Amino acid sequence: MEPRMLQLLFILHVLALPVQPCENPKENSPLIRCLNLELLRLSQDLSAEPNPSVYVALRLSAEHNLEKEAEYLQRLMNVSASSSGAAGQPGTGRLALYLLALRAACENMETDQRRQVVTQLKHHLHKEMRRIDSQGYGHPITSYYQYSLAALALCIHGKKVDTHVIQKLLNNEKHKFTHGEEPSMDTEAMAGLAFTCLERANLYDDGTVEAVHLAAKSVTEKILQAQTAQGTFGNIFSSALAVQLLIATRWSKQKPECPKVMAALLESLKGGDFQNPMTMSQLLPVLYGKSYLDIASMECRAESDTLVLDTSCPKSQLVIPGTDMITVQLIVEHPPHPEKLYNHSIQVPAGSSLFDVLTAAQDGPEKFTFKTQKTQQGLFLTTVMGVRAGDRDRRYWQLLRAPDISLEQGISNYQPQNETIILKFRPW
Ligand code: B12
Ligand SMILES: *[C@@H]1O[C@H](CO)[C@@H](O)[C@H](O)[C@H]1NC(C)=O
Ligand SMILES: *[C@@H]1O[C@H](CO)[C@@H](O)[C@H](O)[C@H]1NC(C)=O
Ligand SMILES: *[C@@H]1O[C@H](CO)[C@@H](O)[C@H](O)[C@H]1NC(C)=O
Hints:
Radius of gyration: 22 Å
Organism: Pelusios castaneus
Family: Belongs to the eukaryotic cobalamin transport proteins family.
Subcellular location: Secreted
Subunit structure: Interacts with CD320 (via LDL-receptor class A domains).
Helix content: 40-55%
Shape: globular
Pfam families: Cobalamin_bind, DUF4430
Bound molecules: cobalamin, 2-acetamido-2-deoxy-beta-D-glucopyranose
Protein backbone atom coordinates (compact mmCIF):
# COMPACT_ATOMS: atom_id res chain seq x y z
CA MET A 1 0.00 0.00 0.00
CA GLU A 2 1.18 3.52 -0.65
CA PRO A 3 2.54 5.43 2.35
CA ARG A 4 0.03 8.22 1.75
CA MET A 5 -2.78 5.70 1.92
CA LEU A 6 -1.43 4.24 5.15
CA GLN A 7 -1.22 7.70 6.60
CA LEU A 8 -4.81 8.41 5.65
CA LEU A 9 -5.97 5.16 7.21
CA PHE A 10 -4.08 6.05 10.34
CA ILE A 11 -5.75 9.46 10.53
CA LEU A 12 -9.19 7.94 10.00
CA HIS A 13 -8.43 5.43 12.72
CA VAL A 14 -7.44 8.16 15.17
CA LEU A 15 -10.58 10.14 14.37
CA ALA A 16 -12.72 7.08 15.05
CA LEU A 17 -11.28 6.49 18.52
CA PRO A 18 -13.62 7.55 21.30
CA VAL A 19 -11.13 9.93 22.93
CA GLN A 20 -12.42 13.25 24.11
CA PRO A 21 -10.01 16.12 24.37
CA CYS A 22 -8.90 17.82 27.56
CA GLU A 23 -12.03 19.79 28.31
CA ASN A 24 -13.48 21.63 31.21
CA PRO A 25 -16.67 20.56 32.95
CA LYS A 26 -19.79 22.40 31.78
CA GLU A 27 -20.73 23.88 35.19
CA ASN A 28 -17.94 26.45 34.90
CA SER A 29 -19.37 28.12 31.84
CA PRO A 30 -20.37 31.43 33.53
CA LEU A 31 -16.76 31.93 34.63
CA ILE A 32 -15.49 31.16 31.13
CA ARG A 33 -18.08 33.43 29.54
CA CYS A 34 -16.86 36.26 31.77
CA LEU A 35 -13.30 35.77 30.56
CA ASN A 36 -14.63 35.84 27.02
CA LEU A 37 -16.51 39.07 27.74
CA GLU A 38 -13.43 40.60 29.37
CA LEU A 39 -11.45 39.98 26.18
CA LEU A 40 -14.29 41.39 24.08
CA ARG A 41 -14.30 44.46 26.31
CA LEU A 42 -10.52 44.82 25.88
CA SER A 43 -10.96 44.64 22.12
CA GLN A 44 -13.20 47.69 22.30
CA ASP A 45 -10.59 49.84 24.03
CA LEU A 46 -9.53 52.21 21.27
CA SER A 47 -6.60 53.55 23.29
CA ALA A 48 -4.89 50.13 23.33
CA GLU A 49 -3.07 48.79 20.30
CA PRO A 50 -5.05 45.91 18.79
CA ASN A 51 -3.62 42.51 19.72
CA PRO A 52 -3.84 39.62 17.22
CA SER A 53 -3.64 37.11 20.07
CA VAL A 54 -6.83 38.57 21.57
CA TYR A 55 -8.54 38.41 18.21
CA VAL A 56 -7.57 34.76 17.72
CA ALA A 57 -8.92 33.92 21.18
CA LEU A 58 -12.26 35.58 20.39
CA ARG A 59 -12.45 33.64 17.12
CA LEU A 60 -11.72 30.27 18.78
CA SER A 61 -14.56 30.80 21.25
CA ALA A 62 -17.92 29.05 20.87
CA GLU A 63 -19.77 32.34 21.35
CA HIS A 64 -19.32 35.48 19.31
CA ASN A 65 -20.15 39.10 18.85
CA LEU A 66 -19.56 39.09 15.11
CA GLU A 67 -19.94 42.83 14.64
CA LYS A 68 -17.40 43.74 17.31
CA GLU A 69 -15.02 41.04 16.09
CA ALA A 70 -15.23 42.46 12.56
CA GLU A 71 -14.47 45.97 13.84
CA TYR A 72 -11.49 44.65 15.76
CA LEU A 73 -10.19 42.87 12.67
CA GLN A 74 -10.40 46.15 10.77
CA ARG A 75 -8.30 47.90 13.39
CA LEU A 76 -5.84 45.03 13.40
CA MET A 77 -5.37 45.10 9.63
CA ASN A 78 -5.06 48.86 9.68
CA VAL A 79 -2.18 48.78 12.15
CA SER A 80 -0.38 45.85 10.57
CA ALA A 81 -0.60 47.38 7.13
CA SER A 82 0.97 50.64 8.22
CA SER A 83 3.70 49.50 10.63
CA SER A 84 5.91 46.45 10.80
CA GLY A 85 7.28 45.84 14.27
CA ALA A 86 9.33 47.94 16.64
CA ALA A 87 12.57 49.55 15.53
CA GLY A 88 15.25 47.03 14.63
CA GLN A 89 13.11 44.08 15.75
CA PRO A 90 12.07 41.65 13.04
CA GLY A 91 8.69 41.21 14.71
CA THR A 92 8.65 37.52 13.83
CA GLY A 93 6.13 36.61 16.52
CA ARG A 94 3.85 39.60 15.89
CA LEU A 95 3.69 38.82 12.21
CA ALA A 96 2.96 35.16 12.95
CA LEU A 97 0.10 36.09 15.27
CA TYR A 98 -1.23 38.47 12.62
CA LEU A 99 -1.25 35.64 10.08
CA LEU A 100 -3.08 33.39 12.52
CA ALA A 101 -5.63 36.17 12.98
CA LEU A 102 -6.18 36.47 9.23
CA ARG A 103 -6.79 32.74 8.94
CA ALA A 104 -9.10 32.79 11.97
CA ALA A 105 -11.09 35.45 10.11
CA CYS A 106 -11.25 33.27 6.96
CA GLU A 107 -9.76 36.19 5.04
CA ASN A 108 -8.85 35.71 1.41
CA MET A 109 -5.08 35.24 1.29
CA GLU A 110 -4.78 35.30 -2.49
CA THR A 111 -4.11 39.01 -2.86
CA ASP A 112 -0.71 40.52 -3.60
CA GLN A 113 -0.59 42.23 -0.24
CA ARG A 114 -1.46 39.08 1.71
CA ARG A 115 1.00 36.93 -0.19
CA GLN A 116 3.59 39.51 0.71
CA VAL A 117 2.87 39.07 4.41
CA VAL A 118 3.51 35.34 4.08
CA THR A 119 6.73 35.99 2.18
CA GLN A 120 7.80 38.46 4.81
CA LEU A 121 7.32 35.93 7.59
CA LYS A 122 9.28 33.31 5.65
CA HIS A 123 12.03 35.89 5.30
CA HIS A 124 12.03 36.63 9.03
CA LEU A 125 12.21 32.95 9.81
CA HIS A 126 15.21 32.62 7.53
CA LYS A 127 16.96 35.46 9.27
CA GLU A 128 16.23 33.78 12.62
CA MET A 129 17.64 30.53 11.25
CA ARG A 130 20.81 32.15 9.98
CA ARG A 131 21.39 33.65 13.40
CA ILE A 132 21.13 30.19 14.99
CA ASP A 133 23.75 29.02 12.50
CA SER A 134 26.11 31.92 12.93
CA GLN A 135 29.17 30.81 14.80
CA GLY A 136 28.94 30.10 18.50
CA TYR A 137 25.52 31.66 18.85
CA GLY A 138 22.92 28.92 18.73
CA HIS A 139 19.96 31.24 19.41
CA PRO A 140 17.48 32.84 17.04
CA ILE A 141 17.24 36.64 17.00
CA THR A 142 14.06 36.71 19.08
CA SER A 143 13.44 33.35 20.76
CA TYR A 144 12.52 29.75 20.00
CA TYR A 145 9.03 30.67 21.15
CA GLN A 146 8.60 33.14 18.28
CA TYR A 147 10.47 30.83 15.92
CA SER A 148 7.93 28.08 16.70
CA LEU A 149 5.01 30.46 16.45
CA ALA A 150 6.18 31.49 12.97
CA ALA A 151 6.53 27.90 11.79
CA LEU A 152 3.06 27.20 13.18
CA ALA A 153 1.51 30.20 11.42
CA LEU A 154 2.96 29.22 8.04
CA CYS A 155 1.81 25.65 8.56
CA ILE A 156 -1.73 26.74 9.50
CA HIS A 157 -1.87 28.53 6.15
CA GLY A 158 -0.82 25.36 4.36
CA LYS A 159 2.52 26.91 3.38
CA LYS A 160 5.59 24.73 3.26
CA VAL A 161 8.16 25.51 5.93
CA ASP A 162 11.76 25.16 4.75
CA THR A 163 13.11 21.84 6.03
CA HIS A 164 16.29 23.58 7.25
CA VAL A 165 14.11 25.79 9.42
CA ILE A 166 12.35 22.70 10.78
CA GLN A 167 15.70 20.99 11.35
CA LYS A 168 16.94 23.80 13.61
CA LEU A 169 13.86 23.47 15.77
CA LEU A 170 14.27 19.70 15.89
CA ASN A 171 17.91 20.11 16.94
CA ASN A 172 17.02 22.45 19.75
CA GLU A 173 14.14 20.32 20.97
CA LYS A 174 16.72 17.73 22.01
CA HIS A 175 17.94 20.21 24.60
CA LYS A 176 15.66 22.14 26.90
CA PHE A 177 13.94 25.32 25.82
CA THR A 178 14.59 27.97 28.43
CA HIS A 179 13.02 31.14 29.80
CA GLY A 180 15.90 33.05 31.32
CA GLU A 181 17.70 30.18 33.03
CA GLU A 182 14.64 28.09 33.80
CA PRO A 183 12.87 25.50 31.62
CA SER A 184 10.20 27.10 29.43
CA MET A 185 7.10 24.96 29.17
CA ASP A 186 5.52 27.77 27.09
CA THR A 187 8.18 27.26 24.44
CA GLU A 188 7.96 23.46 24.63
CA ALA A 189 4.21 23.75 24.07
CA MET A 190 4.52 26.19 21.17
CA ALA A 191 7.17 23.99 19.52
CA GLY A 192 4.90 20.99 20.08
CA LEU A 193 2.00 22.77 18.35
CA ALA A 194 4.27 23.54 15.41
CA PHE A 195 5.54 19.93 15.19
CA THR A 196 2.00 18.56 15.36
CA CYS A 197 0.82 20.86 12.58
CA LEU A 198 3.82 19.96 10.40
CA GLU A 199 3.25 16.27 11.00
CA ARG A 200 -0.30 16.49 9.64
CA ALA A 201 0.47 18.81 6.74
CA ASN A 202 1.10 16.21 4.04
CA LEU A 203 3.86 18.37 2.53
CA TYR A 204 7.02 16.65 3.73
CA ASP A 205 9.05 13.53 3.04
CA ASP A 206 8.68 10.49 5.31
CA GLY A 207 11.90 11.25 7.19
CA THR A 208 10.73 14.71 8.17
CA VAL A 209 7.25 13.48 9.13
CA GLU A 210 8.78 10.82 11.35
CA ALA A 211 11.17 13.33 12.96
CA VAL A 212 8.47 15.88 13.78
CA HIS A 213 6.22 13.11 15.04
CA LEU A 214 8.90 11.97 17.49
CA ALA A 215 9.63 15.56 18.50
CA ALA A 216 5.95 16.24 19.24
CA LYS A 217 5.88 13.09 21.35
CA SER A 218 9.05 14.08 23.19
CA VAL A 219 7.73 17.56 23.94
CA THR A 220 4.44 16.15 25.22
CA GLU A 221 6.32 13.81 27.53
CA LYS A 222 8.48 16.66 28.87
CA ILE A 223 5.34 18.63 29.58
CA LEU A 224 3.51 15.76 31.29
CA GLN A 225 6.56 15.05 33.43
CA ALA A 226 6.72 18.69 34.48
CA GLN A 227 3.28 18.51 36.10
CA THR A 228 3.46 19.91 39.64
CA ALA A 229 1.54 18.80 42.71
CA GLN A 230 -0.84 21.69 42.05
CA GLY A 231 -1.54 20.29 38.60
CA THR A 232 0.25 22.91 36.51
CA PHE A 233 2.73 22.21 33.71
CA GLY A 234 5.55 24.58 34.59
CA ASN A 235 3.67 27.49 36.13
CA ILE A 236 0.01 28.38 35.74
CA PHE A 237 0.66 30.66 32.73
CA SER A 238 2.54 28.08 30.69
CA SER A 239 -0.19 25.57 31.54
CA ALA A 240 -2.65 27.24 29.18
CA LEU A 241 -0.39 26.64 26.16
CA ALA A 242 0.56 23.18 27.44
CA VAL A 243 -3.12 22.18 27.48
CA GLN A 244 -3.48 23.54 23.95
CA LEU A 245 -0.87 20.97 22.95
CA LEU A 246 -2.70 18.18 24.77
CA ILE A 247 -5.91 19.19 22.99
CA ALA A 248 -4.13 19.29 19.63
CA THR A 249 -2.62 15.84 20.14
CA ARG A 250 -5.97 14.52 21.40
CA TRP A 251 -4.64 13.56 24.79
CA SER A 252 -7.48 11.71 26.47
CA LYS A 253 -9.31 13.59 29.17
CA GLN A 254 -9.74 10.30 30.98
CA LYS A 255 -6.07 10.43 31.88
CA PRO A 256 -5.48 11.99 35.32
CA GLU A 257 -3.26 14.83 34.04
CA CYS A 258 -6.16 16.50 32.32
CA PRO A 259 -8.74 17.09 35.06
CA LYS A 260 -5.91 18.10 37.38
CA VAL A 261 -4.59 20.87 35.18
CA MET A 262 -8.08 22.06 34.21
CA ALA A 263 -8.99 22.38 37.89
CA ALA A 264 -5.81 24.38 38.51
CA LEU A 265 -6.52 26.71 35.58
CA LEU A 266 -10.11 27.36 36.66
CA GLU A 267 -9.02 27.94 40.26
CA SER A 268 -6.43 30.50 39.13
CA LEU A 269 -8.92 32.16 36.81
CA LYS A 270 -11.35 32.48 39.72
CA GLY A 271 -8.55 33.87 41.90
CA GLY A 272 -7.85 36.60 39.36
CA ASP A 273 -4.35 35.49 38.29
CA PHE A 274 -5.00 35.99 34.58
CA GLN A 275 -4.74 39.75 34.48
CA ASN A 276 -3.21 40.84 31.20
CA PRO A 277 -4.56 40.47 27.63
CA MET A 278 -1.79 38.09 26.60
CA THR A 279 -2.26 35.52 29.36
CA MET A 280 -6.06 35.74 29.07
CA SER A 281 -5.95 35.23 25.33
CA GLN A 282 -3.74 32.13 25.67
CA LEU A 283 -6.14 30.64 28.20
CA LEU A 284 -9.55 31.20 26.59
CA PRO A 285 -9.18 28.71 23.71
CA VAL A 286 -8.42 25.77 26.04
CA LEU A 287 -11.51 26.54 28.11
CA TYR A 288 -13.51 25.96 24.93
CA GLY A 289 -11.51 22.80 24.15
CA LYS A 290 -9.62 24.46 21.30
CA SER A 291 -5.99 24.87 20.28
CA TYR A 292 -4.28 27.05 17.66
CA LEU A 293 -4.34 24.03 15.35
CA ASP A 294 -8.13 24.37 15.10
CA ILE A 295 -7.64 27.67 13.26
CA ALA A 296 -6.62 25.70 10.15
CA SER A 297 -10.09 24.22 9.76
CA MET A 298 -12.20 27.26 10.64
CA GLU A 299 -14.96 28.04 8.16
CA CYS A 300 -16.53 31.12 9.76
CA ARG A 301 -20.03 29.96 8.96
CA ALA A 302 -23.12 29.55 11.11
CA GLU A 303 -21.45 30.97 14.22
CA SER A 304 -23.51 31.79 17.27
CA ASP A 305 -23.74 35.58 17.44
CA THR A 306 -24.85 35.73 21.05
CA LEU A 307 -22.20 37.55 23.02
CA VAL A 308 -23.22 40.95 24.34
CA LEU A 309 -21.29 43.25 26.62
CA ASP A 310 -23.19 43.46 29.86
CA THR A 311 -22.43 44.04 33.48
CA SER A 312 -23.27 40.60 34.87
CA CYS A 313 -19.62 39.70 35.35
CA PRO A 314 -17.72 40.79 38.47
CA LYS A 315 -15.00 43.35 37.76
CA SER A 316 -11.52 41.88 37.89
CA GLN A 317 -10.54 41.25 41.47
CA LEU A 318 -7.67 43.70 41.76
CA VAL A 319 -7.08 44.67 45.34
CA ILE A 320 -7.44 48.40 45.75
CA PRO A 321 -4.48 49.71 47.74
CA GLY A 322 -5.72 50.47 51.24
CA THR A 323 -4.35 52.27 54.23
CA ASP A 324 -2.37 49.33 55.68
CA MET A 325 1.26 49.73 54.79
CA ILE A 326 3.77 47.09 53.77
CA THR A 327 7.54 47.31 53.63
CA VAL A 328 9.43 46.00 50.64
CA GLN A 329 13.20 45.64 50.78
CA LEU A 330 14.37 46.47 47.27
CA ILE A 331 17.77 45.21 46.16
CA VAL A 332 19.43 45.76 42.79
CA GLU A 333 22.15 43.32 41.77
CA HIS A 334 24.42 43.70 38.80
CA PRO A 335 26.78 40.74 38.73
CA PRO A 336 29.72 40.48 38.57
CA HIS A 337 29.88 43.74 40.54
CA PRO A 338 29.66 42.47 44.12
CA GLU A 339 28.32 45.66 45.69
CA LYS A 340 24.57 46.16 45.50
CA LEU A 341 23.60 49.03 43.21
CA TYR A 342 20.73 49.74 45.55
CA ASN A 343 19.44 48.30 48.84
CA HIS A 344 16.75 50.16 50.70
CA SER A 345 13.33 49.53 52.15
CA ILE A 346 10.25 51.10 50.60
CA GLN A 347 6.88 51.64 52.22
CA VAL A 348 3.74 51.38 50.11
CA PRO A 349 0.03 50.69 50.78
CA ALA A 350 -0.82 46.95 50.89
CA GLY A 351 -2.13 45.81 47.51
CA SER A 352 0.29 48.00 45.54
CA SER A 353 1.92 46.52 42.48
CA LEU A 354 5.65 46.11 42.13
CA PHE A 355 5.49 49.01 39.67
CA ASP A 356 4.08 51.16 42.50
CA VAL A 357 7.01 50.09 44.69
CA LEU A 358 9.55 51.06 42.02
CA THR A 359 7.80 54.38 41.52
CA ALA A 360 7.88 55.09 45.27
CA ALA A 361 11.59 54.20 45.29
CA GLN A 362 12.19 56.58 42.41
CA ASP A 363 10.40 59.38 44.26
CA GLY A 364 12.37 58.60 47.46
CA PRO A 365 15.65 60.17 48.57
CA GLU A 366 17.87 57.25 47.50
CA LYS A 367 18.12 57.92 43.79
CA PHE A 368 16.56 54.76 42.40
CA THR A 369 15.79 55.01 38.70
CA PHE A 370 14.04 52.71 36.21
CA LYS A 371 12.47 52.65 32.77
CA THR A 372 9.82 50.43 31.25
CA GLN A 373 8.34 49.50 27.92
CA LYS A 374 4.63 48.98 27.38
CA THR A 375 3.66 45.50 26.11
CA GLN A 376 0.47 43.43 25.97
CA GLN A 377 1.81 41.57 29.00
CA GLY A 378 2.03 44.77 31.04
CA LEU A 379 5.10 46.93 31.62
CA PHE A 380 8.44 45.30 30.81
CA LEU A 381 11.30 46.55 32.98
CA THR A 382 14.07 47.58 30.58
CA THR A 383 16.44 49.80 32.56
CA VAL A 384 17.41 49.95 36.24
CA MET A 385 19.88 52.45 37.74
CA GLY A 386 20.81 53.49 34.22
CA VAL A 387 21.70 49.92 33.17
CA ARG A 388 19.75 48.96 30.08
CA ALA A 389 19.00 45.34 29.24
CA GLY A 390 19.03 44.82 25.51
CA ASP A 391 17.91 42.11 23.10
CA ARG A 392 21.30 42.39 21.39
CA ASP A 393 23.33 41.23 24.36
CA ARG A 394 20.51 38.93 25.52
CA ARG A 395 20.30 40.39 29.01
CA TYR A 396 17.24 41.20 31.07
CA TRP A 397 16.32 42.43 34.51
CA GLN A 398 15.02 39.38 36.29
CA LEU A 399 12.47 39.85 39.08
CA LEU A 400 13.04 37.71 42.16
CA ARG A 401 11.72 37.22 45.63
CA ALA A 402 14.54 36.64 48.12
CA PRO A 403 16.50 34.52 48.18
CA ASP A 404 16.13 33.30 44.59
CA ILE A 405 12.50 32.66 43.60
CA SER A 406 11.78 33.98 40.13
CA LEU A 407 8.49 35.89 39.99
CA GLU A 408 5.78 34.51 37.72
CA GLN A 409 4.35 37.94 36.94
CA GLY A 410 5.71 41.25 35.75
CA ILE A 411 5.90 44.55 37.62
CA SER A 412 2.38 45.64 36.59
CA ASN A 413 0.66 42.51 37.89
CA TYR A 414 2.77 41.34 40.84
CA GLN A 415 1.67 42.56 44.25
CA PRO A 416 4.44 42.22 46.85
CA GLN A 417 3.96 41.38 50.53
CA ASN A 418 6.33 42.39 53.30
CA GLU A 419 9.29 40.83 51.52
CA THR A 420 12.58 41.36 49.76
CA ILE A 421 12.46 41.88 46.00
CA ILE A 422 15.65 41.53 43.98
CA LEU A 423 16.19 43.00 40.53
CA LYS A 424 19.03 41.10 38.95
CA PHE A 425 20.80 41.74 35.65
CA ARG A 426 20.90 38.35 33.96
CA PRO A 427 21.65 36.67 30.65
CA TRP A 428 18.84 34.74 28.96
C1 B12 B 1 10.66 34.92 25.53
C2 B12 B 1 10.09 35.34 26.86
C3 B12 B 1 10.87 36.16 27.68
C4 B12 B 1 12.20 36.78 27.24
C5 B12 B 1 11.87 38.02 26.34
C6 B12 B 1 13.05 38.52 25.51
C7 B12 B 1 12.93 38.26 24.05
N1 B12 B 1 13.54 39.09 23.25
O1 B12 B 1 12.30 37.31 23.59
C8 B12 B 1 12.82 37.12 28.63
C9 B12 B 1 13.69 35.96 29.09
C10 B12 B 1 13.65 38.40 28.70
C11 B12 B 1 11.59 37.20 29.53
C12 B12 B 1 11.59 37.84 30.74
C13 B12 B 1 10.55 37.77 31.67
N2 B12 B 1 9.43 37.06 31.58
CO1 B12 B 1 8.93 36.15 29.91
N3 B12 B 1 8.34 35.16 28.46
C14 B12 B 1 8.80 34.89 27.25
C15 B12 B 1 7.86 33.94 26.46
C16 B12 B 1 8.44 32.52 26.53
C17 B12 B 1 7.60 34.32 25.00
C18 B12 B 1 7.19 35.79 24.78
C19 B12 B 1 6.99 36.08 23.30
O2 B12 B 1 7.93 36.13 22.54
N4 B12 B 1 5.73 36.25 22.86
C20 B12 B 1 5.36 36.40 21.46
C21 B12 B 1 5.42 37.88 20.98
C22 B12 B 1 4.90 37.99 19.57
O3 B12 B 1 4.58 38.66 21.81
P1 B12 B 1 5.16 40.03 22.45
O4 B12 B 1 4.11 40.56 23.34
O5 B12 B 1 5.73 40.89 21.40
O6 B12 B 1 6.39 39.42 23.31
C23 B12 B 1 7.23 40.24 24.08
C24 B12 B 1 6.75 40.34 25.53
O7 B12 B 1 6.09 39.12 25.86
C25 B12 B 1 8.05 40.51 26.30
N5 B12 B 1 8.00 39.76 27.55
C26 B12 B 1 8.47 38.54 27.76
N6 B12 B 1 8.21 38.15 29.00
C27 B12 B 1 7.56 39.17 29.58
C28 B12 B 1 7.08 39.29 30.88
C29 B12 B 1 6.42 40.46 31.24
C30 B12 B 1 5.85 40.55 32.61
C31 B12 B 1 6.30 41.53 30.31
C32 B12 B 1 5.62 42.80 30.70
C33 B12 B 1 6.79 41.40 29.00
C34 B12 B 1 7.41 40.20 28.67
O8 B12 B 1 9.11 39.99 25.50
C35 B12 B 1 8.56 39.51 24.26
C36 B12 B 1 9.55 39.73 23.15
O9 B12 B 1 9.87 41.08 23.02
C37 B12 B 1 6.54 34.08 27.29
C38 B12 B 1 5.62 32.86 27.21
C39 B12 B 1 4.18 33.17 26.89
N7 B12 B 1 3.30 32.28 27.24
O10 B12 B 1 3.82 34.18 26.36
C40 B12 B 1 7.10 34.36 28.70
C41 B12 B 1 6.25 35.14 29.75
C42 B12 B 1 5.47 36.21 29.03
N8 B12 B 1 7.23 35.74 30.67
C43 B12 B 1 6.82 35.77 31.87
C44 B12 B 1 7.57 36.33 32.97
C45 B12 B 1 6.97 36.16 34.34
C46 B12 B 1 8.78 37.00 32.76
C47 B12 B 1 9.60 37.75 33.83
C48 B12 B 1 8.76 38.67 34.70
C49 B12 B 1 10.36 36.69 34.68
C50 B12 B 1 11.10 37.26 35.87
N9 B12 B 1 10.83 36.74 37.06
O11 B12 B 1 11.93 38.11 35.76
C51 B12 B 1 10.64 38.50 32.95
C52 B12 B 1 10.35 39.99 32.70
C53 B12 B 1 11.03 40.89 33.71
C54 B12 B 1 11.06 42.32 33.30
N10 B12 B 1 12.26 42.83 33.06
O12 B12 B 1 10.05 42.99 33.22
C55 B12 B 1 5.45 35.15 32.02
C56 B12 B 1 4.36 36.25 32.19
C57 B12 B 1 3.21 35.79 33.05
C58 B12 B 1 2.21 36.91 33.30
N11 B12 B 1 1.45 36.74 34.35
O13 B12 B 1 2.11 37.86 32.58
C59 B12 B 1 5.36 34.28 30.74
C60 B12 B 1 3.94 34.02 30.22
C61 B12 B 1 6.08 32.93 31.02
C62 B12 B 1 5.46 32.14 32.15
N12 B12 B 1 4.71 31.10 31.86
O14 B12 B 1 5.67 32.44 33.30
N13 B12 B 1 10.57 36.53 28.99
C1 LIG C 1 -7.29 53.27 9.98
O1 LIG C 1 -6.23 54.24 10.14
C2 LIG C 1 -6.57 55.54 9.74
C3 LIG C 1 -5.34 56.43 9.84
O2 LIG C 1 -4.43 55.98 10.81
C4 LIG C 1 -7.74 56.07 10.58
O3 LIG C 1 -8.09 57.35 10.18
C5 LIG C 1 -8.93 55.10 10.44
O4 LIG C 1 -9.99 55.51 11.28
C6 LIG C 1 -8.51 53.69 10.80
N1 LIG C 1 -9.60 52.75 10.58
C7 LIG C 1 -10.02 51.90 11.51
C8 LIG C 1 -11.12 50.97 11.13
O5 LIG C 1 -9.53 51.84 12.63
C1 LIG D 1 3.48 43.90 57.03
O1 LIG D 1 4.19 44.36 58.15
C2 LIG D 1 3.48 45.35 58.90
C3 LIG D 1 4.37 45.87 60.01
O2 LIG D 1 5.66 45.38 59.95
C4 LIG D 1 2.21 44.73 59.48
O3 LIG D 1 1.47 45.70 60.18
C5 LIG D 1 1.37 44.21 58.35
O4 LIG D 1 0.24 43.52 58.85
C6 LIG D 1 2.17 43.25 57.45
N1 LIG D 1 1.38 42.95 56.30
C7 LIG D 1 1.34 41.75 55.74
C8 LIG D 1 0.47 41.62 54.55
O5 LIG D 1 1.96 40.83 56.16
C1 LIG E 1 20.62 45.29 52.62
O1 LIG E 1 20.64 46.21 53.66
C2 LIG E 1 20.26 45.66 54.93
C3 LIG E 1 20.30 46.77 55.97
O2 LIG E 1 19.65 47.91 55.51
C4 LIG E 1 21.22 44.55 55.35
O3 LIG E 1 20.77 43.94 56.56
C5 LIG E 1 21.23 43.50 54.25
O4 LIG E 1 22.20 42.51 54.55
C6 LIG E 1 21.54 44.12 52.90
N1 LIG E 1 21.39 43.09 51.92
C7 LIG E 1 22.24 42.91 50.91
C8 LIG E 1 21.97 41.76 50.02
O5 LIG E 1 23.19 43.63 50.74
